[in-house]
Amino acid sequence: MGHFCGRPASRRALREAARESAVLRRGSPRRAGLNARRPRRQDAGVGTRDRPTERGVRPGAPPQCEDTMTETIPFRLNGRAVRIETDGERKLLWVLRGDLGLTGTKYGCGEAQCGSCTVVVDGEAVRACRTPVKDARGKDVVTIEGLERGGKLHPLQEAFVEHGGMQCGFCTPGMLMSAYALLLRTPKPTRTQIVAALDDNLCRCANYKRILEAVASAAAAR
Ligand code: FES
Ligand code: FES
User: By Cβ atoms counted within 10 A, which residue in 1, 99, 162, 202 is the most buried?
Assistant: First the structure.
């Protein structure tokens, strides 16, 4: 039987894939070997959904070979301790979206070029589509779902709403996370610094002017 990566799938990989799909049909993260709870509604950020139904692979997505070693990877996710058992080479994006149900982080190019998958790891904006999940071991990961606190949007999210910083909204989580990382290290950035921080985040709606205004506004209000 063929496999996505062109190599024959092992019996073990096929058994694991069948077991995973059965677990996902039942919709229980715990049965998938996770101790993370399913995210609650109030964890969702702007334009996000919290249903853990996505498998993490869609047509055109980079192949995910499953013929690999499983390891335990603990880290903090949006302020909570999580521990997952998976192949450490899997990309953080697919673990967040497929295993942990945090679908606010978006898949765009899969090649670290568009920024739609940006999350913040130990204060730095990283591309989750190219980051092996093992690199998050012991670290503090913040996703778009982690910006909201107690039902209140983060000031950056408020500013995006106020300034019309999103049109289709697909780039918005990545833009917000890049801006969030910028404000962590530079609370009062200049316009040049804002442009530099968001330079690698692409918006197909070309909404850049209002995005920059929103970030500048949030920074000025601090
Ligand atoms: S999906 Fe990661 S940079 Fe485009
Ligand atoms: S708002 Fe549509 S891609 Fe940026």
Answer: 99
